[in-house]
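Known limitations

Structure tokens in this collection are predictions and should be treated as such. Users comparing against experimental data should check residue numbering before alignment. To illustrate the layout, the record for TlpA family protein disulfide reductase is reproduced below. The input appears on top and the generated tokens appear beneath it.
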Amino acid sequence: MLLIVLGLTDAAAVDVGQAVPACAIASPANNEKADFRAARGQVVYVDFWASWCGPCAKSFPFMNRLHAGLADKGLQIVAVNVDENSADAERFLNSQPATFKVAWDGESECAKLFDVQAMPSTYLIDRKGVVRYVHLGFRESEAVQLEEQVKQLLNESP
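Generated tokens:
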């Protein structure tokens, strides 16, 4: 069902060691574009999520904490919603507010470029624009490891 919802192609998934795909998507709050390639010099935490995803609801408090503690050190979090109906995403965000950037990819253009395979899917991108870690799903038991990977990338020189 996930493949139908996302409309994925047979393209190879973005994997560790590859440059972040070029895609720019709008933020519903201010219509500002989120462009992952333009974020060079920062560590970017890209998280694809959907309103119907239970683990996604658990990941938002974690991302809020991560953003609060590390944004001033160069971390940019972009949560990319793939719901076809933006009202579904708005309802989700009313119950799980985000302190970080949220973007909407209702046509799944970025999701196709990343070849997203699960909800949520997280891509950690280093300061040079290279995907360094990929996490499929979210489990609270793995949050410490995820945070350590983010800190490792933040400690690397650009």
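For this record: Residues 54-70 form the longest helix (17 residues). DSSP finds five helices and seven strands in the chain. Please report discrepancies through the issue tracker.
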